[in-house]
Design a protein that fits this description.
The complex is a heterodimer of chains A (396) and B (398). By secondary structure, chain A is α+β, with helices and mostly antiparallel strands. Chain A is built from eleven helices and twelve strands. By secondary structure, chain B is of the alpha/beta class. The longest helix of chain B has 21 residues, at 231-251. The chains are: A alpha+beta (396), B alpha/beta (398). The A-B interface holds A 135, 138-139, 142-151, 153-154, 157, 200, 204, 207-208, 211, 214-215, 258-260, 302-305, 307 and B 11, 13-14, 16-18, 20-21, 23-24, 36, 38, 57-62, 65, 84-87, 103-108.
Chain lengths: 396, 398
């Protein structure tokens, strides 16, 4: 039995009901840098085990009172001379043959690597969508910059032409004032007026200015939306105006959908503020929007001018809000409907997506926000993704 | 006569901005602006255009699809993309049908010069049939051995950019294509490169691999068709001319750009022969035979039988592809440098002299007399004395 327990590659610690250590296997000794002789027989909290003792004691208390197995995840530990890491520990009440409580078994594993990988994967997915957005936003900004530049150049030339004409008029004014003959100046004015096409200039200058201002406003809108979308620091839940968040996300993703879809928004004006992590939720909306655009891209194909429609709506439903993102694409085939939230599941070609978008969206909505992420689909008609978020903060 | 330029963009504001910005050109250019590929094709069906400038991403028909249609149905039109889009998978598809690629935002001068150069090309080559033929060429044949080497090199898991660059620098067609890609903004580069090898390094192995394997920008020469045309001799002569032209420019203490252009123009100076031999094998073969029989220069026989010369054909192709003016000019005038409006030391000077020197060294070129030196031109540039210093050393490829 000793040998069996010693061979287990997990941390195995036994304590009695007074928290005195009764078991301490090899892995525990290696992980914490404490030999079994240093700890066995002493109370758990007094051994100087380099871990988050408070989290463990809290778990032990829960285990004793609820009498069921308790999992304590993400327990920080910092063995001397090594890097800080995370443990996942489960606590199980041990009973004797006659049913009396004899102690608690702590079974733990070092989950640092797994945790790191998960965060890197989430990061990779985020980078992937940021990369996609950066190219799209570049295009969105380049377009207005192109015509703003063209218009300003035109205005420069137009001003130059018109000031030549103005000089002639100034000369005419001088002649008139001084009572001199004006014939030659008048003919100069006629020639210049025809040469620079004054009618064209006076018609075009206001539109050139108007369109340039529109362009500037468009760039400003995109930059504003980018700022709102990325929402850098907040990792906490804050009260968010979902309608505004949705509008920003639609703006930053415009380049992804504008060639394949008409965007229709139906956002409830009286939508209450919703507690959520804005950056994470924007990412969810982005992933679903991009998927919708790709679905429409598949159906429209090349050469057909028919665009599909993406409809985004928000509503308050009972004690929560509902975001619906509907596309008029081909729908999700029956065979893969139960797989779409699986990590690594993708229908896109290799190298075009990590297959993490919807899986991460599901985690964010369900685990982080205590909400629901579901979909309705009919082949040939389209797909609607439905995000439901509770209005009250719940412990998650 | 006014040139007709067609602009296509799904954004009305962009079209109006272009129209205003180019207002000063209204007397030379008849400019037409449409919002979709379908409209552009309908318009071309009514009246031909000299140049089409199209956006890349548009709903319905995108720029590549539009320009592919234009290439098939209206081959005489010069095809230019003006796009703010940077997704390389989309750009790769455009490499075939697109002559030149401009990136948004594009300044007025670049756009004007690019379109004006495209319009001016017409004057180089009078024959519309030949113009259409050249404008439709997406690839140029390479030497079969080099083609196989490059295929192997890009698929080699341990392949290096140096090796790929080295192979491409020895091939006329690959060099021309690489220069087209880096001189245009296809991959956002648009800059001076010293050699095809440097172009390869700028593009990177992944892009090169995609270009060679999926887009198939290279092809190899079909031996069945070549007739009297001696392919390997042309390659040797071209490499020797390039090397010699570079040495001349160096010895004349020219700046780096002139030296680089002299080398590349030397390598490419006979690319027109390749175009003619690949596309009109029988007629071109007849011209070579006639030159041999009558003891005239090849270009004179070409002029007599085809109404043009390989110099004009080559310059037309490289002009379409947007290669630097200095190289296009060197190609166009390499037999008759005195006809070039600009009379000072240029890559043309180096290529003209190198071509004559290499021909004297090695007159095995199939058909016709070796190229003759334009002594008056050399004298006018004050280089007659220098000739003797270049001559003794045989100008051969290393």
């Amino acid at each position: 039995m000793e040998q069996v327990l010693a061979a287990i590659p997990s941390i195995l610690i036994g304590i009695d009901m007074a928290t005195k250590i009764t078991w301490w296997n090899m892995t525990a000794a290696q992980t914490f840098g404490l030999a079994s002789s240093q700890v066995v027989g002493r109370p758990l909290q007094e051994c100087g085990i380099p871990w988050d003792t408070q989290a463990i004691l809290h778990g032990l208390a829960t285990c004793r009172s609820t009498r069921v197995r308790v999992s304590v995840d993400d327990v920080r530990f910092h063995p001397p001379g090594k890097k800080e890491g995370f443990l996942g520990i489960s606590l199980t009440l041990m009973q004797s043959a006659c049913g009396a409580d004899v102690g608690i078994l702590l079974l733990g594993a070092n989950i640092t690597g797994r945790k790191l990988m998960r965060s890197q994967l989430a990061q990779a997915q985020k980078l992937e969508s940021i990369g996609l957005l950066a190219a799209g936003i570049g295009h969105e900004i380049n377009t207005p910059i192109q015509y703003i530049g063209d218009n300003i150049l035109f205005l420069q030339e137009a001003f130059h032409d018109l000031s030549t004409l103005l000089e002639h008029y100034a000369a005419l004014y001088q002649m008139c004032r001084n009572g001199l003959p004006t014939t030659s100046v008048l003919s100069q004015i006629d020639t210049t007026t025809a040469a620079i096409d004054v009618a064209y200039l006076t018609a075009e200058i206001p539109t050139a200015i108007q369109q340039s201002l529109e362009g500037v406003e468009r760039v400003a809108t995109i930059v504003r939306a980018m700022k709102e979308f990325s929402h850098p620091s907040t990792k906490e839940k804050v009260s968010v105006d979902l309608n505004k968040a949705i509008e920003s996300t639609i703006t930053v993703a415009r380049n992804e959908w504008k060639y394949v879809a008409q965007m229709v928004t139906d956002l409830a004006p009286d939508l209450p503020l919703v507690p959520c992590v804005p950056g994470e939720l924007n990412q969810v909306i982005l992933n679903i929007l991009v998927n919708a655009a790709h679905a429409l891209g598949d159906v429209g194909g090349d050469g057909t001018p028919e665009k599909g429609t993406i409809t985004v709506s928000t509503r308050q439903v009972g004690e929560g809000v509902e975001i619906r993102i509907a596309d008029t694409g081909p729908g999700i085939p029956e065979a893969i409907r139960d797989k779409i939230f699986d990590p690594f599941f993708t229908t896109k070609e290799v190298g075009k997506g990590t297959g993490q978008g919807l899986a991460i969206a599901h985690t964010v909505v369900v685990e982080q926000h205590g909400g629901q992420l579901t979909f309705e689909t009919a082949e040939g008609e389209g797909t609607t993704f439905i995000i439901r978020l509770p209005l009250t903060l719940s412990r998650s | 006569m006014q040139k007709r330029i067609l602009f296509v963009d799904d954004e009305v504001n962009v079209l109006q901005g272009l129209r205003r910005m180019l207002n000063a050109m209204r007397h030379e250019w008849d400019m037409v602006f449409v919002e979709s590929g379908q409209e552009a094709l309908a318009l071309l069906a009514q009246a031909p255009c000299d140049v089409i400038v199209s956006d890349m991403r548009m709903p319905g028909m995108d720029g590549t699809q539009l320009l592919t249609q234009v290439m098939k149905r209206f081959p005489l039109t010069v095809r230019i993309i003006l796009s703010g889009y940077a997704d390389s998978s989309i750009i790769l598809k455009a490499v075939g049908p697109v002559h030149q690629y401009l990136a948004k935002p594009c300044d007025a001068a670049t756009l004007q010069v690019t379109v004006a150069r495209a319009c001016a090309l017409r004057s180089l080559l009078a024959d519309p049939a030949l113009q259409g033929l050249i404008a439709g060429m997406q690839t140029l044949p390479s030497l079969p051995t080099l083609y196989l080497e490059v295929l192997e090199a890009v698929q080699d898991p341990h392949g290096s950019l140096e090796r790929v660059g080295d192979i491409m620098s020895r091939d006329i067609s690959m060099t021309a294509k690489m220069l087209q890609l880096v001189n245009s903004a296809f991959f956002g580069l648009r800059r001076h490169v010293a050699s095809p090898g440097e172009a390869v390094k700028l593009l990177g192995l992944d892009t090169i691999k995609a270009l060679v394997l999926s887009v198939q920008i290279f092809s190899h020469f079909d031996h069945q068709q070549k007739g009297a045309f001696a392919l390997d001799v042309l390659w040797q002569h071209s490499l020797a001319t390039g090397t010699c032209a570079k040495r001349i420019a160096q010895e004349e203490q020219q700046d780096r750009h002139v030296v680089d252009h002299a080398f590349m123009a030397g390598l490419l100076h006979d690319i027109g022969k390749l175009v003619l031999a690949a596309n009109l094998p029988d007629r071109y073969s007849a011209a070579l035979v006639q030159a041999q029989a009558q003891g005239t220069a090849v270009w004179e026989a070409e002029r007599a039988l085809l109404g043009t010369t390989h110099a004009e054909v080559g310059a037309y192709l490289l002009g379409l592809w947007g290669l630097p003016d200095a190289i296009v000019e060197a190609l166009a005038f390499h037999h008759c440098p005195s006809a070039c409006p600009e009379q000072r030391f240029s890559p043309l000077t180096a290529v003209h002299i190198a071509n004559a020197l290499v021909h004297t060294e090695d007159s095995t070129e199939a058909g016709g007399m070796p190229a003759t030196l334009d002594s008056a031109y050399v004298a006018q540039l004050g280089l007659s004395e220098r000739l003797s210093t270049w001559r003794p050393q045989p100008c051969r490829a290393a």
